[in-house]
Amino acid sequence: SSTNSYPLIKRVAITTTAQEITLPAVCTSVTFGSADAIYYANVGSDGQAFTSAITDYSFVPANNLFTIKMEKGTQSNRKLLVGTQAGSGHVSIIIEKE
């Protein structure tokens, strides 16, 4: 969340428990995906399990990217939780600022 250079591309190791990523306040969109099928959410905590502790989530099929346009203003949720549906892998994240 402390970058000043955009777009920012990161690759993060993940497992079946949620990895919490805090998005910068100026982020206008985030694109993410993996070679593995992943779950994602914005309500929950780092290290929680998807499907049991985190019950409000969605998914991205393997070898796909998904983009979320970020809300501007004080009510914007700056948390992204990601995890693999099975095993371990990596998620690629592209943070953009318009």
Count the E strands.
8
Radius of gyration: 13 Å
Shape: globular
- Proportion of strand residues: 35-45%
Largest sheet: 4 strands, antiparallel
Please render the helix and strand layout as text.
Elements: E1 8-14, E2 19-22, E3 29-34, E4 38-41, E5 58-60, E6 64-69, E7 79-84, E8 89-96
Antiparallel strand pairs: 1-8, 2-7, 3-6, 3-8, 4-5, 4-7
Describe the structure in brief.
The protein is an all-beta fold and 98 residues long. Helices cover 0% and strands 45% of the residues. It is built from no helices and eight strands.
Describe this structure in words.
The protein is an all-beta fold and 98 residues long. The chain is 0% helix and 45% strand. It is built from no helices and eight strands. The chain has strands at 8-14, 19-22, 29-34, 38-41, 58-60, 64-69, 79-84, 89-96. The chain has a four-stranded antiparallel beta sheet, with no helix packed on it. A four-stranded antiparallel beta sheet has the order 2-7-4-5, with no helix packed on it.
